[in-house]
Design goal:
This protein has helices at 17-29, 56-61, 77-86, 101-114, 128-138, 172-187, 278-292, 297-315, and strands at residues 8-13, 33-39, 52-54, 67-70, 90-93, 118-120, 145-154, 192-202, 205-215, 220-227, 232-239, 242-247, 258-264, 267-268, 271-273, 317-321. The protein is globular and about 60 Å long. The chain contains eight helices and 16 strands. Strands 7, 8, 9, 10, 11, 12, 13, 14, 15 and 16 form a ten-stranded mixed β-sheet that branches. The chain has a six-stranded parallel β-sheet with strand order 3-2-1-4-5-6, sandwiched between helices. By secondary structure, the protein is of the alpha/beta class.
Length: 324
């Protein structure tokens, strides 16, 4: 069967909750992608998803699949990213792309050798609300950014979830740091340095991290991420003349009109952003980049910069084991 013209054929490795609830419905809403097959060690969870169910090996070898979405536990990302790239497939990988900078470098090297797209799924940045926030800053009335604050916390995942297993790359840092570092890099002018903070662990599992960094543009970046706390998901930007707050910043529902809280020179300048599905927009943007056939070097550099920044965050913290 010939693939539709100007559409990317996708295969999914790992029928995770996020794949079922977010990624697959988004594919079905796009005109530039089509789901061909799913590989999962739990086929029963995938039977109602209107896709061929095949083995991992068959999916990687499938001649019609051009792009593989990897939604496996964190410790398996590097292995299957490299296997997919070796098979000649473009890759979207769930966060975090790798568990270390060295791991990400190995994946980038293989992608560069094969001239293939490698994308860490920072899907939230494709929501138009973040471009709207940038526009407010760039208008000039906001002034230079002085501080950026990122908070992402939620209750502990349920029993049996790989996020609770350090051997599987679990923990709050691996699950949540990517949101803080990517949003900071998106808005701040300077490069982050001088990380410091506290990382708290329980039975070897990182459950929270709180800290700060200073950028080369004298901006303060502060972050709080945690398991086992009430849900919070926001960022705040403090400028010389105002401040901006975006709630549900990283998990904005596709049907939600989000209110962006803005104050400039003491006056309210808040506005609303219409509903948007950032998964759908991300898939469309990725497909467009692949179909354009241009260099993927900028994406490789972004992947590496995010890994390096997260590693600096980890190394800059004092690590403490909780006693209770």
């Amino acid at each position: 069967m010939n693939k539709p013209v100007n559409r990317i054929t996708i295969g999914i490795l790992g029928c995770s909750d996020i794949a079922r609830r977010k990624f697959i419905p988004a594919i079905n809403q796009t005109k530039t992608a089509i789901l061909k097959a799913i590989a999962s060690r739990n086929p029963a969870a995938c039977r109602d998803l209107n896709a061929e169910l095949i083995s991992y090996e068959a999916l990687l070898d499938h001649p019609e699949i051009q792009l593989v979405y990897i939604s496996l536990p964190n410790h398996l990302h590097e292995e299957f990213v490299i296997r997919a790239l070796h098979a000649g497939k473009h890759v979207i990988c769930e966060k975090p792309l790798g568990l270390s900078t060295a791991s990400v470098e190995r994946m980038i090297d293989r992608a560069r050798e094969r001239r293939l797209f490698l994308f860490e799924n920072l899907m939230y940045l494709h929501h138009p609300q973040h471009a709207a926030v940038k526009s407010v800053i760039e208008e000039g009335k906001f002034g230079n950014i002085r501080a950026f604050r990122s908070i992402f916390c939620f209750p502990f995942p349920g029993a049996g979830n790989f996020r609770l297993d350090p051997a599987m790359g679990g923990g709050a840092f691996h699950d949540l740091a990517c949101y803080a570092v990517s949003s900071a890099a998106h808005f701040l002018r300077g490069r982050c340095r001088s990380f410091s903070g506290y990382a708290l662990c329980k039975n070897g599992l990182n459950i929270s991290m709180n800290g700060t960094a200073l950028t080369t543009a004298d901006e303060i970046f502060s972050y709080s991420l945690a398991f086992g706390q009430p849900y919070e998901c926001l960022y705040e930007i403090i400028g010389e003349q105002g401040n901006i707050r975006v709630d549900r910043a990283y998990t904005t529902p596709a049907d939600m009109e989000n209110r962006i809280q803005v104050t400039i020179n003491g006056k309210d300048a808040s506005f609303s952003v219409p509903p948007a599905d950032h998964f759908k927009l991300m898939i469309e943007d990725v497909c467009a980049m692949i179909l354009a056939g241009k260099s993927f070097e900028a994406m490789y550099r972004r992947n590496l910069a995010m890994a390096q920044m997260a590693e600096q965050m980890w190394k800059g913290c004092h690590h403490e084991e909780l006693c209770q």
